[in-house]
Write a sequence for this structure.
């Protein structure tokens, strides 16, 4: 083992396959362990869970109580109690992870972003007003983008913010504001009944948290420590064909002599297509000059000579998965055509809804007092763009 | 604010060790987010909020994918998140067009008012 606890030359994460009984030596924590309350919980090497099951299930139960309490209700809405309980549940689980593996304390930003993401997600499903729910969803997106940044996925961080928070959520907000029921004269600012009262809150919460407990019990039997060196991500063999990127960096570092150029290796799909797990890193960069070829080995490279995250994603996207891009384009085209067809469809209003609308229209209170136009007085407005 | 400053804020100086972040933490957050989205889809009656909850589930899947991508030190997971975004955008476009259509017909967003579709 190296000085930092990782085997020398190791560059990947620990495999999740520690369930396999053929390699019991992969799991060093095979002895009997006791949790906070002195309960034994890992007698077999194959079931060494990173978290004490009691803490995990207590956290899940507490979280279920929190979500069930914060659900919108008719009479009273104890969402503050729910929020406190939810924070306690999350804290309990994170504390349990820390208690068993104090060495695996992630950085503070992980806790910050995950707490914001989960708290905002809870508010998305409990806030009775749809616009606020959508705005809390934006907060979830931003916190998830923070998690992506900690995971050194910089390209996806900004793609997420631009595409999700910038485009998709704006569409949602438009539709929420477009498809709002006209207020009645008794309650101009009332919430709809279907927003105020949740459907089957207890059963759904129970089902959801049983699923969560099951998932978090089963999806790993080990912590899955992540590699400490993200710059080794997927190797950097692609640098050998990127002469135009490598040359200025080497020149700036003073490693290129007069008249020397970086020799790009010819591109071949078999050799370079899509970096995979465990790809070797590049040993040296070949430069050619008046004095013949020479190799600049890895230990001489400047620190900024590395494959950036967006370049890695680009190689993976364009080189390794070109057919998937085509299919994604077809999906988007189909969705666009479908949305156009649906939006142009002429809709007959339901008889009962029409009757209710006409009743609202005939009401003498309507219009001036509410400060809104009588929508159904104008022909064709309710039918949208059915021209 | 340059990228390096952001990265320093996020995980310390780049060449230094990231700190022992573990896959389990991220998977737990992802699973919790997914379950919250699922509960929301089951309990809420507003059609738009129901679709918003499916977006929450997409988002949870994305967090898990990026964590796995970092864990295995390749970019396949991140690439897959791009396709998750694509599907989410297509789904949002179609679902919202449908919601507007349904709203025009019944003047309500209540999902339970469409129980006649059960057949």
């Amino acid at each position: 083992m190296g000085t930092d606890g990782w085997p020398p030359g190791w560059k990947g994460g620990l495999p999740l396959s520690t369930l396999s009984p053929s390699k019991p030596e992969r799991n060093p924590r095979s002895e009997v362990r006791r949790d906070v309350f002195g309960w034994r919980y890992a007698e077999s090497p194959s079931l060494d869970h990173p978290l004490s099951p009691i803490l995990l299930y207590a956290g899940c139960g507490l979280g279920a109580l929190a979500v069930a309490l914060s659900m919108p209700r008719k009479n009273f809405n104890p969402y503050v109690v729910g929020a406190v309980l939810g924070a306690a549940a999350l804290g309990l689980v994170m504390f349990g992870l820390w208690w068993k593996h104090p060495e695996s304390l992630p950085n503070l930003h992980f806790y910050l972003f995950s707490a914001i993401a989960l708290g905002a997600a809870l508010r998305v499903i409990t806030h009775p007003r749809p616009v606020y729910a959508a705005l809390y969803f934006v907060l979830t997106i931003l916190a998830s983008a923070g998690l992506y940044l900690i995971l050194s996925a910089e390209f996806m961080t900004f793609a997420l913010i631009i595409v999700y928070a910038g485009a998709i959520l704006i569409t949602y907000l438009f539709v929420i504001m477009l498809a709002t029921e006209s207020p009645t004269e008794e309650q101009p600012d009332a919430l709809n009944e279907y927003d105020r009262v949740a459907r089957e809150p207890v059963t759904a919460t129970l089902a959801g948290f049983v699923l969560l407990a099951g998932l978090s019990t089963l999806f790993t039997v080990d912590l899955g420590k992540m590699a400490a060196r993200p710059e080794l991500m997927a190797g950097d063999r692609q640098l050998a064909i990127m002469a135009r990127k490598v040359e200025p960096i080497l020149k700036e570092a003073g490693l290129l002599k007069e008249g020397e150029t970086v020799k790009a290796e010819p591109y071949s799909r078999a050799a370079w297509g899509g970096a995979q797990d465990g790809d070797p890193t590049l040993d040296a960069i070949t430069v050619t000059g008046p004095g013949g070829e020479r190799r600049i080995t890895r230990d001489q490279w400047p620190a900024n000579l590395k494959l950036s995250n967006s370049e890695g994603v680009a190689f993976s996207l364009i080189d390794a998965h070109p057919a998937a891009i085509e299919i994604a384009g077809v999906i988007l085209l189909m969705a666009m055509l479908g949305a156009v067809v649906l939006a142009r469809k002429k809709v007959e209003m339901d008889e009962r809804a029409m009757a209710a609308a006409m009743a609202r229209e005939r009401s003498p209170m309507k219009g001036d007092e509410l400060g809104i136009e009588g929508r159904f007085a104008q022909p064709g407005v309710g039918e949208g763009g059915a021209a | 604010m340059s990228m390096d400053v952001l990265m320093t804020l996020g995980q310390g100086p780049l060449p230094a060790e990231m700190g022992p972040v573990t896959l389990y933490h991220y998977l737990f957050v992802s699973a919790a987010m997914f379950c919250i989205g699922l509960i929301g889809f089951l309990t809420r009656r507003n059609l738009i909020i129901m679709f918003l909850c499916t977006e929450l589930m997409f988002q949870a899947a994305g967090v898990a994918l990026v964590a796995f991508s970092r864990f295995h030190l390749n970019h396949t997971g991140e690439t897959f998140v791009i396709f998750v975004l694509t599907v989410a955008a297509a789904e949002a476009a179609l679902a919202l067009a449908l919601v507007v259509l349904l709203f025009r017909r019944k003047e309500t967003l209540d999902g339970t008012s469409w129980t006649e579709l059960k057949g």
In short: Chain B touches chain A through 88 residues (CB under 8 Å). Chain B has one domain: 21-110.
